[in-house]
Design brief:
This protein is α/β, with parallel strands linked by helices and 385 residues long. The chain has 2 domains: 128 residues, no CATH class; 208 residues, Spore Coat Polysaccharide Biosynthesis Protein SpsA, Chain A (Alpha-Beta Complex), CATH 3.90.550.10. The protein is built from 14 helices and 8 strands. Strands 3-2-1-4-7-6-8-5 form an 8-stranded mixed beta sheet, sandwiched between helices. Strand 1, helix 2 and strand 2 form a beta-alpha-beta unit. The longest helix is centred in the last third of the chain and has 33 residues. The mean pLDDT is 89. GO terms for molecular function: transferase activity. This is Glycosyltransferase family 2 protein. InterPro entries: Glycosyltransferase_2, Nucleotide-diphossugar_trans. It comes from Sphingomonas lutea. It holds the Pfam family Glyco_tranf_2_3.
């Protein structure tokens, strides 16, 4: 029984390492003909984004053609988001329903507005994000020609004077959203949707379950689309960047995501695996296997605690096999982190900051304590610097 428990706890470390190894090199995809892509719509959900929405609209409009559309959904706003977005040149719809808060409701409201003259393709960008030049057209092209859901590489910008713990969180974000997504794509897995930098053909978007207050609506939207029989593609040649949050806001953001992820993974993986086997879908099976990897800080804490327990078991006369398995898992996990840092992370994170990972783990300990005693259920907007 102890040996089985050790294997179960160790397994995510090996999965993580494999994804990192396969994700070290950039993923090359053939360039699609962008000029022939039919007009597409960009949908921007915005809640109290008056400070940033004008710059966001201007940046998005710079990539649009005359027949493309830009729709901002000013959702339950108590500021001038709607007026500022209109003045900046966006079409705007306003939604006021305090009882139903959350990004999913805003997206559903925007879909209803667009359905009057439905575009062939929808691109979703958060109000605090910037799309690298040409990114909107590439997202629309991938969704239109492939008739799949598409996720761009979504990263956090890194200010030169970033808080060290926030910088470590941003590095973990990069490992998840770039290195591991790239590894999953190279292995043939479905991508994880991440809320912004997403594109859909209208036939997929029109039937997607959007109107929820789910705190990880992006993850669960992807799971729902896979069960509907759709595919989800990740592309590297379209990148979306968002400003990092302050230390306090980073904790709030990670609490929301990691609480939602853990609950969703625990409830979704069995059904995903069964469905993948029945439908013979490797992409869906690999997606489910990826969900077995908990947030990295949480896994590190669990693995170290199990390693200590296995060591005590071994020195008190028990078998050393569980200790060996857990040691191997920790070694390959650390190796995966180091390889990801050498490949991508050292451009944004110094080695001096990287070695402070133990402090980062302690910083995140309250998140996991709250997961046990007071799990977050409601969506909260992340405040940006």
């Amino acid at each position: 029984m102890i040996a089985i428990a050790a294997v179960v706890i160790a397994l995510p470390g090996f999965i993580f390492a494999v994804e990192c190894v396969f994700g070290l090199r950039p993923l090359r995809r053939p360039e699609l003909p962008l000029g022939d892509v039919p007009a597409f719509a960009v949908l921007v959900p915005a809640h109290n984004e008056a400070a940033a929405i004008a710059a966001t609209v201007a940046a998005l409009r710079s990539q649009l053609r005359s027949d493309d559309r830009l729709l901002v959904v000013a959702d339950n706003c108590s500021d001038a988001t709607a007026d500022i977005a209109r003045l900046a040149g966006a079409d705007v719809v306003e939604r006021h329903d305090p009882a139903r808060r959350g990004k999913g409701y805003a997206l559903a409201y925007g879909r209803q507005a667009l359905a009057v003259d439905a575009p062939p393709t929808i691109v979703i960008i958060d109000a605090d994000c910037r799309v690298e030049p040409g990114g909107l057209a590439r997202l629309a092209a991938e969704a239109f020609y492939g008739q799949t859901a598409v996720q761009a590489a979504y990263l956090l910008e890194q200010p030169s004077q970033a808080d060290e713990l926030v910088a470590l969180s941003s590095f973990a974000f990069m490992v998840r959203n770039l290195v591991r997504q790239r590894g999953l794509a190279r292995l043939g897995a479905a991508a994880l949707l991440q809320g912004t930098g997403m594109a859909f053909p209208w036939r997929i978007f029109s039937a997607a379950p959007l109107a929820t207050d789910d705190i990880v609506e992006d993850l669960n939207l992807g799971i729902a689309l896979l069960h509907q029989g759709h595919r989800i593609t990740w592309i590297e040649n379209a990148r979306v960047n968002s400003l990092p949050a302050s230390r306090k806001a980073t904790i709030a953001q990670r609490t929301r995501w990691e609480h939602g992820f853990v609950v969703s993974a625990l409830t979704s993986v069995p059904r995903l695996l069964v469905t993948a086997i029945l439908r013979r879908r490797l992409d869906m099976a690999l997606f489910a296997i990826d969900l077995l990897v908990p947030p990295l800080a949480l896994f590190a804490m669990l693995a170290v605690a199990a390693w200590v327990a296995a060591g005590l078991f071994a020195v008190t006369g028990g078998t050393a096999a569980p200790l060996a398995v857990l040691t191997s898992s920790l070694v390959v996990m650390v190796t995966g982190v180091l390889l990801a840092w050498v490949s991508e992370g050292r451009r944004v994170l110094s080695l001096k900051t990287l070695v402070k990972v133990p402090v980062y783990l302690l910083w995140k300990l309250p998140i996991y304590a709250r997961l046990l005693v007071r799990r977050q259920h409601t969506w909260v907007r992340t405040e940006r610097d």
